[in-house]
Every structure is written in C-alpha cells, then in structure tokens.
C-alpha cells in the first residue's frame, strides 16, 4: 500500500502532529500590516542609529558646561572629595575597563551607601561628556544648585530672631573663591552669601568641592542688582560694611559686628565697584604687614567673619 512500503523513498514524510484542520489564523495574521517602517535612526541595527547616538553624546557633553544643567566632576581625587563632603549627586559614572585602586573603590562604596546610582559607560562616552580624556575613568554627576532669593534670605534670618550676618561678593569670578567664602561663612555663624547674576562665579561643581559640602546647608542667593539688594538690607536694619584698603575703620577699631551686618567683599584686583562702595555705610580695612599688598577675597572674608563671630560670643 502506498505510504506503508518500507522501501527507500516510499515513505510519506509529514511534520503534522495532532489535529491539523485549518491554519489557526496564521494566514490572516500574515496578511495584516506591520505598521509604518521605523525611521532609519530608530532601527538599532542601522548606521543612522549609531550616528544619532553619537549626536546625543556630543550634545550631552556640551550641556555639562551649561550652568543650568547637570555638571560633571571628574578625576578620582576630586570625585572622592565631593562624595566625602556629601555633595548632592545623581550618578557616578565609571568607564568600562578602568583599573581599580583604593580611591575608585572608596568612591563606589560611598555612592552605594548613599544610594547614588553607579553606571558603567564606555570610555569614549565619558570622553565625549567631559570633552577630554583626563577624567581617569570616573565622573560624578552634580545637579544644578538651587539658589534662594534675597527676599527669602532676609525673611529666613528674621525668623531666627538673631542678628543676621551676610556676605555679598562683588566682582568675584573664581568658583574656588566662592566655595571658600561659603565655607567660612558657614563656619563662623553667617546666614548666607549673595552673588550677582552676571559677571560672577556661580555655584558649580568646583564650588561644591571647595565649600566642602557646606553649600548644601548655607543659603546662596543671586541678585540682579547689588545696589538695590544693599538698599533692601538697609531697610531691614542692616549695617553695610565694605572691605577696602584705607577705609575709615579697621577690623581692630570697628565694634559693630554684633549688629545685623552685611559684609561686602570685592575682588583682589578690582576691589569694590564704585556704586557699591558709595552705598556702603562703613568702609573697613584689615590690618596687615605693609609689604603685603592685598588679601585673597576668601581669606579677607574669613578674617572679618572670625572677628565678628568673636564679638558676638563676647556679647553673649
């Protein structure tokens, strides 16, 4: 009988198992449309998709330099310093294949303990994000700093019931100086720091690191106009003390540190702006050896804040 003959070539071959009636809808499904064809750049296997990713990486690298977006602290020592200082961070990037050492291990351990995501990325991607290859295989993402307003700063100090002590910086463009001033202000019981919106250092990743994390607890405000800001403090009962060589007072003779006070500090080179200087109630200098021309802004701030803090301790 055909199909039962065991001779070679006489067997009927079939892959059917069980009931085979009908197609089970396979033909109907096969006739259905699959929708529009995805764009070439959306197909992961297409070269256009790789070009799209490369554009996004380049754009991300440019964005890290924008003051209003996430910044990246790179280098093993700087990253560890920021993590130790509890600087707010959103992610720790580690290049794949990076050699481990104690600093990298510590950075990963601190990040894990603080709940900061640790993400492995291609070294080329980290190169693109930083714009160079000097990152040592590690980068820490820092979110934008949230500034307060001058009005909120004055109101917050008033709620404490204590005489306020605030620092205003004029013509300070070095973020390390800003970070050091923030740290000194916090250390000596100050209530806040104010910087201009334009032509001034802002709170960047470098500032965070220099402030040793105190920027997370001390308010920093941005002012559109320093002279209007000074007038607002005057109306709130503050004495405005500007630091300038040759002022009518010195740090040894001025005893108004116990009152609500604003300390205005200019840059080491330019000093105070003319209008800001004219708007100060008192111009005060810091006594020092005659052969030393001037002090760095952060050092000057530390000296004055320390003396005013001493006066407040003595006054009880």
From TrEMBL:
GO BP, one annotated term: methylation
Enzyme class: transferase
Molecular functions per Gene Ontology: RNA binding; RNA methyltransferase activity
Keyword annotations from UniProtKB, A to Z: Methyltransferase, S-adenosyl-L-methionine, Transferase
Domain named RNA 2-O ribose methyltransferase substrate binding: residues: 72-148
GO CC annotations, alphabetized: cytosol
EC number per UniProt: 2.1.1.-
NCBIfam families in UniProt: rRNA_methyl_3
Record-linked CDD domains: SpoU-like_RlmB (cd18103)
Record-linked InterPro entries: Alpha/beta_knot_MTases (IPR029028), Ribosomal_eL30-like_sf (IPR029064), rRNA_MeTrfase_TrmH (IPR004441), SpoU_MeTrfase (IPR001537), SpoU_subst-bd (IPR013123), tRNA_m1G_MTases_N (IPR029026)
Biased composition (Basic residues): 9-19
UniProt superkingdom: Bacteria
The protein's name: Putative TrmH family tRNA/rRNA methyltransferase
